[in-house]
Amino acid sequence: MFSGKDVPAVGVSIGIERVFAIMEGQARERAAASGTAIRATETQVLVASIGNGMQVKRMEVAAKLWAAGIKAEFGFKPNPKMGDQLGYALEQGIPFMVLFGETELQQGQVKVKDMAAKTEEAVALDELVGVLQRLIAPQAAS
Fold it and tell me: What is the pLDDT of residues 33-65, one digit of tens each?
């Protein structure tokens, strides 16, 4: 075109940015209508702790969940604030939290918080995987 020579070519443009913008707008409308957050992550469980020095234990619990095929994550800060962890779970639309502090660990328990139902139950650490799989199963089906 600019060289003065004929160069054979074929091209098509469908405006992919426009297509994605329309799809995003539709997703936002559905989320607003249902009152849910648009999830940027597939995380099913946020592992959170109360108190200092719990980062290694959060990693251990998350690793246990990963081994069972549960999509879990934990905060990278050594001593995160509970409000920050809770806010993150709500902002990201993470459906469940596993919470623990020194007292729960001494008792061999953690708390499982259902973010949608706004309920919390104490669960033995040995039974955590089974309880979460039972809670997550109905969501995975829908």
Answer: 887 767 777 899 999 999 888 999 999 999 999
- Partners of residue 122 on adjacent β-strands: 111
| pLDDT tens string 76-105 | 888 899 999 999 999 888 999 999 999 999
46 burial (CB, 10 Å; 0-12 / 13-18 / 19+) is: buried
Task: Yes or no: say if 10 and 20 are a contact pair by the CB < 8 Å rule.
Answer: no
45-49, strands of its sheet edge to edge: 72-74, 45-49, 96-100, 109-114, 119-124
Tell me the CA end-to-end span of the chain in Å, nearest whole number: 53
Helices (H), the chain: 16-34, 55-67, 82-92, 102-106, 128-141
Q: Which two tokens stand for residue 128?
A: 């955590």
- Report which of 89, 91, 79, 84 is spatially closest to residue 112, judged by C-alpha positions: 89
Write out the DSSP string of 102-130: HHHHHTTEEEEEETTTTEEEEEEGGGHHH
| pTM across the whole model | 0.74
